[in-house]
Known about the structure:
It is a single chain. The chain is of the alpha/beta class. 36% of the residues lie in helices and 16% in strands. The strands form four sheets. A seven-stranded parallel sheet has the order 3-2-1-4-5-9-12, sandwiched between helices. Strands 7-6-8 form a three-stranded antiparallel sheet, with no helix packed on it. It has a three-stranded mixed sheet with strand order 10-11-13. It is globular and about 55 Å long.
Amino acid sequence: MRCLITGGAGFIGSHTADALMAAGHEVRVLDALRPPVHMRPVRPPWLHDDAELIHGDVRDRAVLNRALEGVDAIFHLAAYQDYLPDFSTFFDVNASGTALLFELLVERRQELRRLVVASSQAVAGEGSYRDGDGQDFVPSSRSRDHLAEGRWEISDAMGRPATALPTPEIVSRPQNPYGLSKWTQERLVLDLAPRYGIPAVAMRYSIVQGPRQSFTNAYSGACRIFCLASHFDRPITIYEDGLQRRDFVDIEDVVQANLLVLEDERAIGGVFNVGGERAYTVLEFADLVQRAFDRQGTLEPSGRFRFGDTRHAVSDCTALHQLGWRPTRTPADSVAAYRDWLRSVDPSPAVLDDAAAEMERLGVVRGG
Length: 368
């Protein structure tokens, strides 16, 4: 097949390109090559030499039309993600860009084998919880006042501690602009794709980790910021109390999930969580990173918080299990691979300082 990967010069896209080409497929990449993921508008060295690259934006009708020529399958991974309050940009890139893709596919009457759309765990918001009476519920986001007071955990309607549960795909309650824009993409897959005969699938990625994950993008997550701190022998900054739980998944497992839904007809019309399945506290993960860098020291939570973070985020991947997928790699594997990649590219320590300063300036990081 000839496959188009939007955002294909980035983290998930470039690894997916490698796997597709190893499987004998042709790959075309459309990428804007813009900050904060790419600091220069040039072909990154990790992009496969045989992948065709079109430098352009998914919101550009002419460029996207050209990229669609002759393709049999599309991995729509291009996205804007950040902690910054660029509300309109999230919807312009993620929602409008995807709507334009659907518009052109319908206009061209293009026959596809598959359209795989990158969604996100952020669509679930705070996710599933169980209250003090044993009833499941989906909470709203934590209030700014509660966070400022250090009241980190979710409570039920009676003020009792609630229990976080693995969250299935049926839960959709996004509570930040990124999650809302990704939810819009899912609705396009679920509602518009069947109407026009487009065999589409949405993939709700958890926190994906591994080499090539942008060290200049603050949204890249704990692996990026903890590994950078350790690489530069700086203290690891831990928000809240460090007991928030996260679901980390290795890039190699994500790529295998992508290739699976490309081929499996049962995936069409579905939304699938892609997660690591085991919950780690942020403190546990930070300790794992320290050990990977042969560092020792006491990890001290800062008591500060990023406004908009979820408390706990763990995905239920049962639906993807039913297609035969299981994660095979651990967060320790991901951290070791990212550590080795960081050492090979040797970033400047300014990438830590610049991202932290920008989040402070815009009020993303608060408290303490």
